[in-house]
Design a protein that fits this description.
The complex is a heterodimer of chains A (about 210) and B (about 120). Helix content of chain A is about 70%, strand content about 0%. With about 210 residues, chain A is mostly helical. Chain A folds into 2 domains: about 1-115, Leucine-rich Repeat Variant (Alpha Horseshoe), CATH 1.25.10.10; about 115-210, Serine Threonine Protein Phosphatase 5, Tetratricopeptide repeat. The longest helix of chain A has 19 residues, at about 195-210. Chain B has a single domain, classed as Rossmann fold, CATH 3.40.50.2300. Chain B has helices at about 10-25, 35-45, 60-70, 85-95, 105-120; strands spanning about 5, 25-30, 50, 75-80, 100. In chain B, strands 2-1-3-4-5 form a 5-stranded parallel sheet, sandwiched between helices. The longest helix of chain B is centred in the N-terminal third of the chain and has 13 residues, at about 10-25. Classes of the chains: A mainly alpha (about 210), B alpha/beta (about 120). The interface of A and B includes residues 133, 160, 168, 198 and 201 of A. Chain B: It holds the Pfam family Response_reg.
Chain lengths: ~210, ~120
């Protein structure tokens, strides 16, 4: 175990991280069960150095009540950067806890591993609330597929608020490619003033970008 | 003139609500999350808060809870959210919200609720 720990410490030092690992994985997992918030927070921080602990961290996140520990868990998860946990993390979007949902959205925006398969699942999730939150994650994903995903939503999704979230984002990033879908979209929700407003704004911005 | 603070992380929603509010003769201001809304509420008085739930940094529940518990403002707060679950409504009222309505809003509906909360005839 010591050699593994040393190896990890060297790797982390190479990543310009001055944090030293003092404890082994089982000890840290035990510490996450502590009643002491400080003990849990410290353990969560050290678990960042163990990508294989990602699933444990997500489990802890789901039951953690202290916001400062949750914050450290999410930071550690994003530093783990392992694709295995992304799906688990996305599951937290179903939480009843609005703070946790928002914290997870922010964490998923910061993830650098491949999230496309998870996003494609979330965008067609049976729960419209999950689909709305998934659209919120797209906001800062900077992925070439984002505009097409949003077009698919405004063309196919039947839930007005999922479509509203998509058109909100299209107001920021729509190109000429979105124009035909937006024009049809206005007629699909013709009795919703907000949808008309947002879609017309997106179309106006596409036109303005074409002129400038 | 009555001042209304719109608290929502979606720029398009803020603009839509601002247009409705200003067209009815109210003064509108905006905040992009609960933290910015608290800062604004501390620096100037508002007659009404129009609050989304899901926002980064501090969500709608947290904002209203702080508003009430720190005695920053007792002006009515209307939640305007996509969250339609009963548990979300309960949480909002527990936090100190006065009304909970589901997006998307229609202009006349929104103005009717604003009028009710401000104790005025709808514009």
């Amino acid at each position: 175990m010591m050699s593994i720990v040393k190896k990890r410490t060297i790797e982390n030092a190479q990543n310009n991280d001055t944090k030293q690992i003092h404890r082994a994985l089982p000890e840290l997992i035990d510490a996450m069960e502590s009643c002491d918030v400080n003990v849990r927070r410290l353990a969560a921080r050290e678990l960042a150095f163990y990508p294989e602990a990602a699933q444990t961290l997500v489990s802890c996140l789901k039951r953690e009540c202290d916001s400062s520990v949750r914050e450290v868990i999410l930071t550690s998860l994003t530093r783990c950067d392992s694709p295995e946990f992304v799906e688990e993390l996305a599951d937290c979007l179903r939480s009843e806890d609005a703070s946790l949902r928002n914290e997870v959205i922010e964490a998923m925006k910061a993830i650098t591993v491949e999230v496309v398969p998870v996003m494609e699942q979330l965008l067609v999730d049976p729960d419209p609330d999950v689909r709305i939150l998934a659209v919120n994650i797209l906001e800062s994903l900077r992925h070439p597929k984002v505009e097409q995903w949003l077009i698919n939503i405004i063309e196919r999704d039947s839930h007005v608020n999922v479509c509203a979230a998509a058109v909100d984002l299209l107001c920021e990033l729509a190109t000429e490619k979105s124009r035909p879908a937006l024009e049809v979209f206005i007629t699909r929700f013709s009795d919703e003033p907000y949808i008309r407003f947002a879609a017309e704004l997106a179309l106006y911005r596409i036109k303005a970008n074409r002129i400038t | 003139m009555k001042r209304i603070l719109i608290v929502d992380d979606a720029a398009t929603v803020r603009l839509y609500h601002r247009n409705i509010i200003e067209s009815a003769g109210f003064v509108a201001d905006e905040a992009i999350n609960g933290i910015e809304a608290l800062e604004k509420a501390l620096s100037m008085p508002f007659d009404l808060f129009l609050v989304d739930i899901n926002m980064p940094k501090l969500d709608g529940y947290g904002f209203i809870k702080e508003l009430r518990s720190q005695d920053i403002a007792q002006a009515p707060a209307m939640i305007v959210s996509t969250e339609a679950k009963e548990s979300d409504r309960d949480k909002a009222y527990m936090a100190g919200a006065n009304l909970y309505i589901i997006k998307p809003t229609k202009p006349q509906e929104l103005l009717t609720y604003i009028g009710l909360l401000l104790g005025e005839e709808a514009a």
